[in-house]
Specification:
Structural class: alpha/beta
CATH architecture of the largest domain: 3-Layer(aba) Sandwich
Largest sheet: 7 strands, parallel
Strand content: 5-15%
Oligomer: single chain
Helix content: 40-55%
Distance between the termini: 67 Å
Shape: globular
Length: 514
């Protein structure tokens, strides 16, 4: 396990790490084991923080080499490295990359594998044959997984896509909320949290939810100067739809169009097909096979257009995406910047255009208000949890209470926030014996209402982005905590004459010609 480089002792708290691991060690391992002639900005510093025994949070754009941080640190620390990754496709890509480098043994354990394959990888982990093990957050909710890791000398715990732990950011996933308990069950090895985009508030919640201890935080610049920012405004839905189809027809491809609903994804794709534009749609309601096929189609295609809800995102690391258009506004500037960041990863010019109607913000605001928890239902939920021995059966409780399992998982986290519930690494939930369940349920409902208010506030920031006459890049980057000062000279407000998509108005669309 590990490498011939100097090792750290997992239990020494990093007291003497600096004397035994310096940037020369990091650079040597990066070159000899991973083939890197030089490290990118921020990588060496983040690795050094881990070697010094610190929990670490790294916020860097996709493509900046975040995975190299845990790969190098894992080789310099004796013990296994656990990487929590939310998508099977992402896990596979990382395992394949490590195997191609032949730097160390790596494997994944997920629901797509046969039971025999899972047993084999678990045995290799327990016997110390694996340096890197990739797991989904759902796997870490299983007591058997925690027990295996407790026997496996885990020295580094990595949370990829760490923004998923934050209810204030984008792409929140309830399963991520249990990771803090899993970390403590493993004796709190060093923790590395990675994400591409996180505002200061999201960073705070990542640290809080994961229980990071005085973390070192590294934030690399968010600016993607090759992405041209633009907002096109419309009075009617018909005008907006026609303008989108018109622009897509003449734009360089491939590209992504984000919409708010599954219905819109189908309808926009059909409108594109009428224009002879090669396209597919993607949303969370598709089966796994359909989603995998659509993902593969887009990643391997040269000129396709994907029309998708925000379910299409993680694992989309395609370098030549020439545009990301938003037919509907996303729920926050966090989400918007994450989604437009999927364009132009090859460094060439790409366009990010928001097709904007004031009414669209109102519609999104309505959905942000939905789901306010009922204190009475929360109290019933807490009462049932108090009577349960072992992990809750959310499916049965969902049917009994008439609440979706995902919402029950979120409700449980609200109860934990009030101090009434404790979620243990085994999956069991302990309800405090002297708890006032009625008061706790009311407090949890009020806190959730506060989060709904925050979501509405973030939507208002999207309205401000659509309406601003100032530098759009400055507005986005300052929201994310960057001290960027405009003008950027590469957005519609800084250069009102920019319109580099080669549209030929005389030709029109096929519908206009016919």
């Amino acid at each position: 396990m590990g490498t011939s480089a100097k090792h750290l002792n997992q239990n020494d708290g990093g007291q003497n790490d600096q004397s035994r691991n310096d940037p020369a060690d990091i650079a040597r391992v990066a070159k000899e084991r991973l083939g890197f002639d030089e490290l990118r900005p921020g990588q060496s510093e983040a690795v050094q923080a881990i070697l010094d025994g610190h929990d670490t949070l790294v916020v860097q754009p996709t493509g900046s080499g975040k995975s190299a941080i845990y790969q190098i640190a894992g080789l310099l620390i004796e013990g296994a490295t656990v990487i929590v990754s939310p998508l099977i496709a992402l896990q596979k890509d990382q395992v394949d990359s490590i195997r191609d480098q032949n730097s160390a043994a790596a494997a994944a354990v997920n629901s797509a594998q046969k039971a025999s394959h899972i047993r084999e990888n678990v045995q290799r982990l327990e016997e110390g044959e694996l340096e890197y093990i990739f797991l989904s957050p759902e796997q870490l909710a299983k007591p058997s997984t925690i027990e295996t890791l407790q026997r496996s000398n885990v020295s580094l715990f990595v949370v990829d896509e760490a923004h998923c732990v934050s209810q204030w950011g984008h792409d929140f996933r309830p399963d991520y909320l249990r990771l803090g308990a899993a970390i403590e069950a493993l004796g709190h090895p060093r923790v590395l949290a990675l994400t591409a985009t996180a505002s200061p508030r999201v960073r705070e919640e990542i640290a809080e939810r994961l229980g990071l201890r005085e973390p070192k935080v590294f934030v690399q610049g968010f600016d993607r100067p090759n992405i041209y920012l633009r907002v096109d405004k419309f009075e009617t839905e018909t005008e907006k739809r026609d303008a989108l189809i018109h622009r897509v027809r003449w734009a360089d491809k491939p590209g992504i169009i984000y919409v708010a609903t599954r219905r819109a994804a189908r309808e926009v794709m059909q409108a594109l097909e009428e224009e002879g534009i090669d396209s597919l749609y993607y949303h969370g309601g598709l089966g796994r096979k359909e989603r995998d096929e659509a993902h593969e189609w887009f990643m391997s295609g040269a000129s396709g257009v994907m029309v998708a809800t925000n379910a299409f995102g993680m694992g989309v690391d395609k370098p030549d995406v020439r545009f990301v258009y938003h037919y509907d506004p996303p729920d926050s500037p966090d989400s918007y910047y994450q989604e437009i960041g999927r364009a132009g990863r090859d460094g060439e010019r790409a366009d990010a255009i928001l097709f904007f109607r004031q009414e669209d913000i109102g519609s999104q605001s309505f959905h942000a208000t939905e789901g306010k928890p009922d204190p009475e239902l929360l109290e019933q939920f807490a009462t049932r949890l108090a009577a349960i021995q072992g992990p809750p059966d959310y499916e049965s409780m969902s049917a009994e209470l008439g609440i979706a399992p995902r919402k029950l998982s979120i409700a449980l986290q609200h109860l934990e926030d009030t101090g009434v519930a404790e979620i243990r690494a085994s999956g069991e939930v302990h309800i405090a014996e002297d708890a006032d369940l009625s008061a706790a349920a009311q407090q949890a409902a009020e806190e959730q209402e506060g989060r709904s208010g925050s979501r509405r506030a973030r939507l208002e920031r999207m309205r401000e982005y659509g309406d601003t006459t100032k530098c759009r890049r400055e507005m986005l980057l300052r929201y994310l905590g960057d001290d960027y000062n405009g003008p950027c000279n590469f957005c519609d407000n800084c250069d009102a004459t920019q319109d580099r998509v080669p549209i030929d108005p005389s030709a029109g669309t096929r519908r206009e010609i016919v």
